[in-house]
Amino acid sequence: IAQAAVKKAVELVPGSLLPGGRPDPLVRRQHGQIGKPVSRVDGPLKVRGAAPFAAEIALDGMVYAALAHSTIAKGRIAAIDTAAAEAAPGVVLVMTHRNAPRLNPPPRFLSGDKAAAGDDSPVMQDDRVRWNGEPVALVLAGTQEQADHARSLITVTYEEEPAATTLSSSDGCEVGTFMGEPLSVKVGDADAAFAAAVHKVEAVYRTPGHNHNALEPHAATLVWRSDELFIHDATQAVAHTAWSMAQIFGLEEAQIHVSSPFVGGGFGGKGLWQHQILAAAARLSGRPVRIVLSREGVYRIVGGRSPTEQRVALGADADGRLTAIIHRGVTPKTRHSPMPEPFILPTQSAYAAEAIALEVQTYHLDMVANTFMRAPGEAVGTVALECAMDELAERLGVDPIELRIRNEPDKDPISGRPFSSRNIVAAYRAGAERFGWDRRSPVPRSRREGEWLIGMGCATATYPYHRMPGGAARITLDAAGHVRIDVAAHEMGMGTATAQAQIAADRLGLSLEAVTVRYGDSSLPGVILAGGSQQTASAGLSVMMAHRELVGELLKLAGNDSPLAGLGADEVEGTDAGLRKLDEPGRFESYASILARSGRTELVAEGSAPMPLETMHWSMHSHGAMFCEVRVNAVTSETRVNRFLGSFDCGRIVNPKMAASQFRGGIIMGLGLALMEETQFDARKGRIMNRTLADYHLPVHLDVPDIDVIWTDIPDPHTPMGARGIGEIGITGTGAAVANAIHNATGRRVRDFPITLDRLL
Ligand code: MOS
């Protein structure tokens, strides 16, 4: 099936994988570096401990920061006593709203009506408290221990006001929006279709809040040099941070330099939060500042995923074809973030149905801003939808894979657009065979080994293809045949530089060793963010466009004496460290020769990616079929995951070694979501009660079984390199696959997540 689909994809749009109708004659020969399991170029540095992270940069005269956090959710600071802290050993500065410099409020992420996330609360500008944990003071001292100690000496008296901490104490619900669009979709009359359906299931699923728990907590080391700010940051968004800080401090963007060559994990929300702003505001100390959030500090000031309550109602006809899909629910947000958890997103393109009604209702709470968090929307939306599909399959007496295949849409059920490429059936078939799905008993609780009940479950994974506008890259080619790529991309462990080096080497006809990639700095061109699983596509297309410019320049330089005389950029390809006419190997000149004849030591070209119009023409998503086998202890109700398989359909895989790692990492996050992760929010105080990894459980090695990953590797004819995103899809579908396996093992349907043993007893 996969081979036939590959053939079809290539025949469909011969030679053209570039969006916007620009033909890309080189795409058919992208089979050199692309697709090779190259090891990460940053690997040796990481293994040796020589990769510098933001909290490891040492600056002369540097002081260490500690934050004091509010202990009420809403009210005002009546008094704040900092005298003891100021007198404590080593203290250089205590900053509160009384002496903090005037700052503009932070802009939201992607500002304006279309803002996607971000928290625009004023930062230490007044005596107001907006959430429990908001910073009320920043202490700078000679050592971290001195700063932490002095911070503990600060006493705050509050005038507390009633806070909204529950749905009933909030001011009511309204339809949520995502990037300016209402999260409300209607096709036909789904309620009537559901009422009339032959078969139906209806259930409410609840997912808890989730917090960021990257190995490296949020951190920055920064220094002012006259009116320029240099930030060594741990961030997924160097350019956006520079742009935001410029607005906050009333400066030009060029006065802010953000560097972030290595990021110790992102989790989605490793962007601009109050810590960088406060550390920069503390310039009145005249000292460089290192600020490293404690694990508790991350829970206090960095937004997470909000809890959701989702009702899914599915109606089907006698043949098991869906006639109604209803997916509605509620989730809290704050007034200062535009983003609710958009859990209906995966349902928009999931299944063919005559009538569909989807809606996210939101209500405002006084809490830390919610944000992008590890496949926002899809991670928890697929939990509800894909568990409901399993419930419907059981009701119908149909195999859950068969039910999904029966309801596979031939076009986007909401927008009516064709799918750019969708091979989910192939992914299911390949996965089922590899996993041994035929060994699953459809009767729950029918397989037992000693104390353990064994079960299998599956679920569909999905994550949209994105590509952000504004992508740009620069290529510098030197006479020795070495190339440097400059692109403001980020390395969170996914292999950014490696992937871009592979793309560049292929197009230039160079060895991988001849390419270096500079990234992670706001002074470099292009790339807004490592997020939305879109960085490789955005940066890759930028590199391809810069390469095109470079080839044009090279052909101009080559001139009339070259074997390439008279040729245009589309008529040549890079090979053997030079250019050659397509299909005419005799007409070749090396880069070194072209540069030497024109007396150049290097050639620089910059290119920008076209607007991401492809998503307006096609419905574009990565897909996957997730398979899980669990054992549940019949005595203790402890769940262990025996085996897991992710069978993906994400277009062409640029680097199988790195992709397997991305898929596995996502699946591990999904296992955490299914079985253990839970932000404990105490509504009496509006306070997050988890403070450490001892009371916020994540999967550790012993919780993670062998995770098998396979993929269709069918190129998407409408994306750069034929690739779609792979960063977040592993998190989606996983929760439902685990829950469905638990049901198959035990006969118990748990709809409140995480599925801890008390919920199974
Ligand atoms: Mo992902 S939450 O968009 O980094």
Protein model, in words:
- It is a single chain.
- The protein is globular, with a radius of gyration of 27 Å.
- The two termini are 43 Å apart.
- It has 3 domains: 54-163 and 214-266 and 270-301, Aldehyde oxidase/xanthine dehydrogenase, a/b hammerhead (Aldehyde Oxidoreductase, domain 3, Alpha-Beta Complex), CATH 3.90.1170; 308-466 and 616-759, Aldehyde Oxidoreductase, domain 4 (2-Layer Sandwich), CATH 3.30.365.10; 469-611, Aldehyde Oxidoreductase, domain 4.
- It has a 7-stranded mixed sheet, with helices on both faces.
- It has 17 helices and 32 strands.
- α9 packs parallel to α17, α12 (496-508) runs parallel beside α13 and α13 packs across α14.
- 24% of the residues lie in helices and 25% in strands.
- Mean pLDDT is 93; it is low at 5-23.
- With 761 residues, it is an alpha+beta fold.
- Dioxothiomolybdenum(VI) ion binds at residues 236, 266, 268, 372-374, 376, 531-532, 728.
- This is Dehydrogenase.
- Keywords: Molybdenum, Oxidoreductase.
Q: How many β strands by DSSP? A: 32
- What's the pLDDT, averaged over the residues? 93
- The helicity comes to 10-25%
Rg calc? 27 Å
CATH architecture of the largest domain: 2-Layer Sandwich
Organism: Azospirillum thiophilum
Domain Aldehyde oxidase/xanthine dehydrogenase a/b hammerhead: 48-162
Keywords: Molybdenum, Oxidoreductase
GO molecular function, one term: oxidoreductase activity
